[in-house]
Amino acid sequence: MAADAGVDFVSFMVPKTIWKDDDAYDWAELDEMCDEVLAANPKALLIPRIKLETSGWWAKKYPDDVITYADGTKGPAPSIASRHYREKACRFLDAMTRHLCEKYPDRFAGIHPAAQNSSEFFYWDTWTKPYFGYDPSTKAAFKAWRRRHGRPEANVPTLAERKLDIFSSPTLADPVKDRVLVDFRLYLQEEMADFIAEVAATCRRASGGKKLVVIFYGYQWEFAGHARGAGTAGHYGVKHLLDKAANDLDILCSPISYQDRAWGQTAPAMNAAETVMRHGVLWLFEDDSRTFLDPDKAARKQEGVSMDLAQTRQVLLRNTAQAIIRGFGCWWMDLPACGWYMDSRLWELMTRLEPFDRAMLGRERPFTPEVAAIVDEESMMYLSLGRLSSLFVGAPRAAYGRAGAPYGQYLLADVLEKPLDAKLQIFQSAWYMTPEKIAAIQAQRAAKPGVTRVWCWAPGYYLSPGGKDLDGIEKLTGFKGKALAPTTGNAATTEEGRRRGLPESLATNETRPFVDLFGVEASDAETWARFEDGTPAIAVRKNTFGGNEVFLGTPACPPELVRALEDLAGVHRYVKDGRAAVWAAEGWLSAMADEQGGRVTFDTGVAGPVTDFFTGKKIADGPVFTLDMAPGETRLFEFAPRPGTRNPEPGTRNQMRRLRGVTGRLCQRGR
């Protein structure tokens, strides 16, 4: 069915049993799987997913080179810090890549190395046993990392130093008192990124640079709420990886976020996809949505997804249209290999989307939305807990997706190097801001004076090397900061806030207080909402260059707040009234109504006909038109592009040529 729909890329998981011993491999099962795919579709382009774990022999043979927990117990996975393991893993990949190039020269399209937890390059047992790092290799590597960074050697932090109370301990580590703990988190990110770079370089060399290299990595928004801090995962070394190894990578990928992905919701990305694309690497969505064919009806109901064929098609259209508009690749994955996609009516959607896909491959420039969500990987290493950061980093994506305008996701280090044109820039994790970073932001204020910048939670709270400093909030944002007594973070909107469209109250639904929230000093006219003690929770002020600085101290972030910020910034909202998640670029607009449906008023921004992509019929004269949408209904419209949207940015055409060479819709075949 995939082949009939023009989908020839096929990805499949290769069992780890083919790696028999140090330098002993058996390709028989790998070849059998390749032959099975080619028997079904002789034109298939193979992208095997290769596990870099072993079937158990490594842990038995090298017990010191496996992941080790604080209590001395050992996990089954090799230690990423073990150079012995990394050498053997790369030798295995080299041999496999050369074998596939020789046996399937025209059908072997790329290789997808996979390692650690769920084969996605985050540390083994990240979710259940986060206190790892006590094997000899990690201990030695961390000491070496400290030396390379000009600091005295230090031991891996103890369990007592890492295990904190979720309700009473500070969420943010102290950059002076907790220096070793923060350094260990920074080290974990670099160690994982360096391993990925070695793996990618191995695959590139072994294939003579002729096959795709695909890697799961970079879930910055998804791990933001990890109970023991985002640094546990190892997924915050993306900028380090791109700077080191972008030329050896073709595709970075992740599943669609598991937050807000249900029918009628927004399906956000886990990652700084736009930053990855700005470095010439394709981002790819793994769409492992449960379909109506999933026999586990209880799981489908719990996840709120695809209870029938119509809902499945709506979810897949929403997801695939977003990927095409943002310039991603995508594949559909039958996660348990039980026939989730065994229905030609699903694959028909791929066939019908082909003209849309091809039209967007001819786009003049990358996806450049007017709203940018920005995360700082370095700041995320100061998180000791995830209860509060999940509300400031991960959860707001649901509001961004419902606010009426498309948004992009970026890393702060990337934005500081190459400023964005986005009118609304939301800095979700900018609490570790050195004087150099603040100076770069100030230079961008002068160069792009019309930007509205939103500063969340504790912006600039840390200034190296002095440690925690409330004055840092003022140096970065212009607002004098104030530490609050423990509070749930609930806020009441002011008359100005209500005039801007905010609801009467901003509630977090938390019953236990947070110990480290902040407010600011602001005039009544500048204040949109106040905490329960009267301290401004949301405040807006013009900077000296004419742009807006916004302090956002409450963790409550409803769509109405984001819409108000978009209007403040002059962002074009494609949804003027009603509830729908939208993505738009270069004369294309996709929209999914929420679970209730209802009347939605759209605004394309330009006069001219608006046509339904699937029927080809004109449905309205733009720019403004209104539709009655059924619950979860998903539509795709074509209209004249807004002025200026087809003028390429300098230096982007080569990037787009590279993307055209690798963009494709892939079918993930579970096994």
Offer a few descriptive terms.
671 residues; alpha/beta; Rossmann fold; Immunoglobulin-like; nine-stranded mixed sheet
Written description of the protein model:
Strand 26 (580-585) and strand 27 (588-593) form a beta hairpin. By secondary structure, the protein is α/β, with parallel strands linked by helices. It is built from 20 helices and 31 strands. Helix 3 runs parallel beside helix 6 (179-206) and helix 6 (179-206) runs parallel beside helix 7 (238-245). The strands form 7 sheets. It has a 9-stranded mixed beta sheet. Strands 1-4-7-8-9-10-11-31 form an 8-stranded parallel β-barrel. The model is unreliable at 645-665 (pLDDT under 50). The longest helix has 28 residues, at 179-206. The chain is globular, with a radius of gyration of 25 Å. Among the domains are: 371-569, Rossmann fold; 575-647, Golgi alpha-mannosidase II (Immunoglobulin-like), CATH 2.60.40.1180.
What are the SSEs and their pairings?
Elements lengths: L8 E6 L4 E3 L2 E2 L2 H13 L4 E7 L5 H5 L4 E3 L5 E5 L4 H21 L6 E5 L21 H13 L10 H4 L16 H28 L5 E5 L21 H8 L5 E5 L17 H6 L3 E6 L9 H7 L5 H18 L2 E5 L10 H18 L9 E5 L1 H4 L8 H6 L1 H7 L4 E5 H6 L6 E6 L5 H13 L4 E5 L5 E2 L3 E2 L2 H7 L3 E3 L7 E3 L1 H5 L5 E2 L11 E3 L6 E5 L4 E7 L5 E5 L6 H11 L5 E3 L2 E6 L2 E6 L4 E15 L5 E12 L4 E5 L14 H10 L2 E5 L2
Helix pairs in contact: 3-6, 6-7, 10-11, 14-19
